[in-house]
Amino acid sequence: MDAENQEQVKAEEAKRVAADEEKRIAAQREEDEKKSKSARQADLRQKNGPAATALLNIFSDGLKRTVLGALGGPDTGQGINVEGLFPEFAKWNAGLSRDDWKATEVTSTVQDYGTVNWKGRSLDGILVKTTVKMASAERGQYKDECFLFGAVVDSEFQMMRDPYESMCNADTSAQWAIGHELKSLWVAY
Q1: Distance CA 176, CA 84 (A)
Q2: Distance between CA atoms of 66 and 60, rounded to whole angstroms?
């Protein structure tokens, strides 16, 4: 190999090493950011877990009562008026038996929780992801349906304001959150 070719090979090898080093640094930076974000999110959830869980339980109780019927115990008055707040979901639920489906389980989790702006007041806002497990003896099959529900929680006036509902596959909750200036206390962005 002559001197000119050696210099060209050295230059190409130096470029490759520099590019590899740049990729490694970028990957490390991305990994550090993910760890930092996960730590921030875990901290948010630990700090705000009790408040978010209390609101989740209100939603969950109302949804279970609506979909599964009585919860087996005395009516504590807890829960939301699902039919009034979420008419599309109530209509879907009413059609289950006509279509030979029976709900067997309702599980709900907090999708997001934080503070929202409601007419200049800072109130709680929550988005809840709910899965309804169903069975059809006539069809001999099972299926799940996923829904997102949200509301501005006005504890002072004991009202759920501006409810949000959608199927999970048609989620537009980001617009709802932006419209209410949701400052998440649950998800680290």
Answers
A1: 19
A2: 10
State residue 81 phi and psi, 5-degree precision: -85, 90
The 10s digit of each residue's pLDDT in 119-167 is: 999 999 999 999 999 999 999 999 999 999 999 999 999 999 999 999 9
C-alpha span between 67 and 71 (Å, rounded): 10
Nearby residues of 152 by Cβ (< 8 Å), 6 or more positions away: 116, 118, 123, 124, 125, 160, 161, 162, 180
Q: Between 3-68 and 87-94, two packed helices, what is the crossing angle to 10 degrees?
A: 70
Dihedral angle sign, alpha carbons of residues 99, 102, 105, 106:
positive
Residue that the structure tokens 């002559």 belong to: 2
Q: Pull the structure tokens for residue 109.
A: 């989790």
Q: For residue 148, how many other CB atoms are within 10 A of its CB?
A: 21
Residue 85's SS3 state is helix
Asked whether the whole model's pTM tops 0.90, one would answer no
| Cβ(184)–Cβ(114) below 8 Å | yes
